Amino acid sequence: MIDWTDLQHFLVLAREGTLSAAAKSLDVDHVTVARRVAALEASISLKLVDRRPRSYVLTEDGRRIAGLGKPMEEIAFSIERTAQAAKAGIDGEISISAPPSLANLLIAPRLIRLRQQHPGIMIKLIGEKRAASLSRREADLALRLSRPLQPGLIARKIGHFEFGLYAAPAYLKATPPHAFTFIAYDAGMDEAPQQQWLKEIAGPRDIVLRTNDLENQAAAARVGVGLAALPRFLGDRDTRLERYDSGRKPAGREVWLVLHRDLRRAPAVRAVASFLETCLQE
Question: Residue 209 contacts by C-beta under 8 Å, 6 or more apart in sequence?
Answer without folding.
Answer: 183, 184, 217, 220, 225, 226
